[in-house]
Design a protein that fits this description.
about 210 residues, TIM Barrel, globular
């Protein structure tokens, strides 16, 4: 089993995905993998999430599938059973998210937004966190402000990041990768234009972390 530290270094961008159907999930996952994406975050924002995780995790030996939008303790065990290799939550609580992930054996990338969130995560032993929602919570200036008091903490900013701004986020010394949904535009998915998804994934995989 890979650690979060290993997973976030497999590529500069982690696609954040929400699928309407399991079949859509399979097409998109294959298209992203063809474009060089090694890590996928399939969220539980739709009923298709768990089944999509199960199918994607069996797609290739070099693909690492995570479960996103963990907001309940039972999500950890459900996703682990489906084949998820890591979890991502929008926030962090000691008694629910942290303990449930540990009990399920699911490496967790917890979400933070404030200095208090960060200190809580650090107290629980986390060295890498998700900054969410990144753009809405201050973007690059906020990450730069965090670097002073928390120079050793690494971030995966997610939320509001685009193909145009991703490189600027990745240039920050405390950013190890970014999460984003721009690789799966709604128009491309509606048109079943999987080639466009692969094209966007290839461009994203070529972005260089700092």
């Amino acid at each position: 089993m890979k650690t979060v530290s290993e997973i976030v270094r497999l590529g500069p961008v982690i696609p954040v995905l929400a699928f309407e159907t399991v079949e859509q999930g399979e097409h998109v996952s294959r298209a992203l993998h063809a474009g060089g994406m090694k890590v996928l975050e399939i969220t539980l924002r739709t009923p298709a999430g768990i089944a999509a995780i199960e199918r994607a995790s069996q797609m290739a030996d070099d693909i690492v599938v995570g479960v996103g939008t963990i907001t309940k303790p039972e999500h950890c065990a459900q996703a682990k059973k489906a084949g998820a290799q890591f979890g991502v939550s929008p926030g962090l609580t000691k008694n629910i998210m942290h303990k449930a992930a540990q009990d399920a054996g699911l490496p967790l990338l917890p979400g933070v937004m404030t200095p208090s969130d960060i200190i809580t995560a650090m107290e629980l032993g986390y060295e890498i966190v998700k900054f969410f929602p990144a753009q809405q919570a201050g973007g690059i200036p906020m990450l730069q402000a965090f670097y002073g008091p928390f120079p050793n903490l690494k971030f995966c900013p997610t939320g509001g990041i685009t193909a145009e701004t991703a490189a600027n986020f990745l240039a920050q010394p405390n950013v190890v990768c970014v999460g984003g949904s721009w690789l799966t535009p709604k128009a491309a998915l509606a048109a079943q234009n999987w080639e466009e998804v692969t094209r966007l994934a290839r461009a994203a995989s070529e972005l260089a972390p700092h």
